[in-house]
Amino acid sequence: MSTQREHDDETVADAFTEHLLLERGRSEHTVRAYRREAAGLLEHLREAERIGLDELDVTALRSWLSVRAESGAGASTLARSAAAARTFTSWLAATGRIPHDVGGRLRAPRRGRHLPTVLSGDQAGTLLDGIESGEPQSPLEQALLLRDAAVLELLYSSGLRVSELVALDRSGIDRGHHTVRVRGKGDRERIVPVGIPALEAVQRWESAGRPVLLERAGGVERAGDALFLGARGGRLGDRAVRTLVERHAGEAGITRHISPHTLRHSAATHLVEGGADLRSVQDFLGHSSLATTQIYTHVSAERLRRTVDQAHPRA
């Protein structure tokens, strides 16, 4: 049987979740992660520290992080936990649930810099060019291939996050200006250029693929204006996108783990290697900070170093 304290903690977590969704405009993925961290912190205060919320201090926060570390959480996970805790304590203070914000001094272990996995230009070409080149399929299979081709082309052409891609509506595509309108993190809208191959793939999907999935779902527009549909006619989900990326990467002979974010990383890296300035790449990706975008200069430098090591006779 749950205690009154557990019920009170659940109420606080619910209110925090509503704040993140309605007032902060955070993505569903971030909201789920931050709620999970907040609930874990509340449980730690209740079970391990045995103190009330009004007694929360930075020592208790550090104790919670220490327990997370001892349970095997890595530096990246701990950094996310600390960020979630700072957001949580700021909200607690702003809403009068604690006397003052105690999370400002909370720091997690410094994360090592891990360069993202990127595809070479040839690998990207093999992945994108091979999808529609097989033998004729059933109408449903052909429709799904048209959809998958458009999904992969857009992910690579415009560097979209998977959450941005699945939220796209048909009205967001501007074929005249070769752009797509997306809403990124923090509900910020941006206009992103789209390449001709991606626009052509989207056109093939909309004209010959999307109607097949709608008909299979009984002709009901369950997904409204959604650009991409799942096999049952609803809006395509991010998990389905991850699955199709992995499948087609495997069929293209790419042995490394490839995700939708790999295509985003690859697009940004290839832009930098092609001479694009970082400010333009920052706008392209929708990064709020240029420091986040600078990782792609390191990726390009690392790729150059490996090429020299392999090819230069005096390396």
What is the CATH homology-level superfamily of the largest domain?
Intergrase catalytic core
Outline: globular
Mean pLDDT: 87
Q: How many structural domains? A: 2
Q: From the structure provided, what is the oligomeric state, counting identical versus distinct chains?
A: single chain
Please provide a written account of the structure.
This protein has helices spanning 4-23, 28-49, 58-70, 75-94, 121-129, 139-158, 162-166, 196-216, 238-251, 260-273, 278-285, 290-293, 295-311, and strands at 173-174, 179-183, 189-193. The chain is mainly α. A 3-stranded antiparallel β-sheet has the order 1-2-3. A hairpin with a 5-residue loop joins strand 2 and strand 3 (189-193). Helix 10 packs across helix 13 (295-311).
Question: What's this entry about, in short?
Answer:
This protein is mainly alpha-helical and 315 residues long. The chain contains 13 helices and three strands; from the N terminus they run αααααααβββαααααα.
Provide tags for this entry.
315 residues, mainly alpha, DNA polymerase, domain 1, hpI Integrase, Chain A, 2 domains, 3-stranded antiparallel β-sheet, 3 strands, 59% helix
